[in-house]
Amino acid sequence: MKLKFQDITYSVPWNLFLITLGSVILAVGLKSIIIPHGMITGGFSGLSILLLYYTGTLTPGLWFLLLNIPVFILGWKFISKRFLYYSLFGMIVLTICLDLTNFKIEIADPWLAALAGGILSGAGVGIVFRSLGSSGGNDIISILLNQKFGIRIGTFNFIFSFVLFLFSFGTMETDLILYSMATSYIASLVMESCITLFNQRKMVIIISEKSRPIADEIIKKINRGATFLKGEGAYTGKSKDIILTVVNTFQIKRIEEVVFGIDPDAFLITENTFNVLGKGFSKRKVY
Q1: What confidence tens digit (pLDDT) does each residue in 53-100 have?
Q2: Which listed site, 32, 94, 207, 279, has its alpha carbon 20 to 30 Å from 176?
Q3: Long-range contacts of 161-164 (CB under 8 A, 24+ apart)
């Protein structure tokens, strides 16, 4: 029996690998770039760094561990136990990585440091979110709000970070806070890109007088399904079948060749999609 990629993504080894990889990348971004430059990042990791700056006690890893205790109690009640177990693993790995990462990446320009720190931290969190768990802290709250209210993970993280930065005034230099805000914004963009990786597809709408031959060619040559939507010309009043299909980025040019090869007067609309779930695409992720 052939093992499908969707089945692999639900396997325990794959999820533990993603959580570990993402946690290592996040820890490197925090300990080797962001903290040495006196900046903070968003989420609970940023709050941990801010507490470190403010108190001068403990370590970022220990602060992160302490902040997670009430969040895990909340998550235990409202989120699946599987998600919590994965997240517990992620929290432990991130805590260990934060305390074991003791090298600094030398970057003289603070803007380049903000860029590099944002890319690494965003990629780390995004990779963790590709799993069925998280690295704990703010991630658990993000997932809870996303599942219950449809709030995008990156959007909530940026808002949380913005509030965190407001409380940073008086504790940190203004320039460092601004650099930190830039880092957080970059991290949120990179994180969203990692989350939608392999999920983003193109929705194609085709209006043509030769819809049946075009649909047959899409199914035959591109190996994609198609659906007819019943439409009516606003000017002519003539009924027609509108083709709706979803393809990946690499198939767009082939779609164009098929459509305009059959009907040069066809009307083709291509739209980006945030996520496509269903047969032939991604499997719904249940946390």
Answers
A1: 888 788 877 888 888 888 887 777 777 788 888 888 988 898 888 888
A2: 94
A3: 161/41, 161/42, 161/43, 161/46, 161/188, 164/40, 164/42, 164/46, 164/47, 164/50
Q: Kindly report the number of other CB atoms within 10 A of residue 70's CB atom.
A: 9
The DSSP annotation for 66-127 comes to: HHHHHHHHHHHHHS-HHHHHHHHHHHHHHHHHHHH--------SHHHHHHHHHHHHHHHHHH
Spatial distance between the Cα atoms of 249 and 197, rounded to a whole number of angstroms: 12
Helix (H) or strand (E) holding 146: helix 138-149
Structure tokens, 179: 């650099």
Domain boundaries, the chain: 5-196, 202-272
Nearest in space to 21 (alpha carbons), one of 72, 81, 107, 89: 89
Q: How far apart are CA 1 and CA 200, in angstroms?
A: 28
Rounded-to-integer distance, Cα 159 and Cα 192, Å: 14
Q: How far is it, in rounded angstroms, from Cα 49 to Cα 184?
A: 14
Phi, psi for 146 (deg, rounded to 5): -65, -40
Per-residue pLDDT of 201-250, as tens digits, reads 788 999 998 999 999 999 988 888 888 999 888 888 888 889 999 887 77
CATH of domain 202-272: 3.30.70.120
Both tokens of residue 277?
A: 């779930």
3-state secondary structure of 230: strand
What's the longest Cα–Cα distance across the chain?
75
Section 38-57 average pLDDT: 81
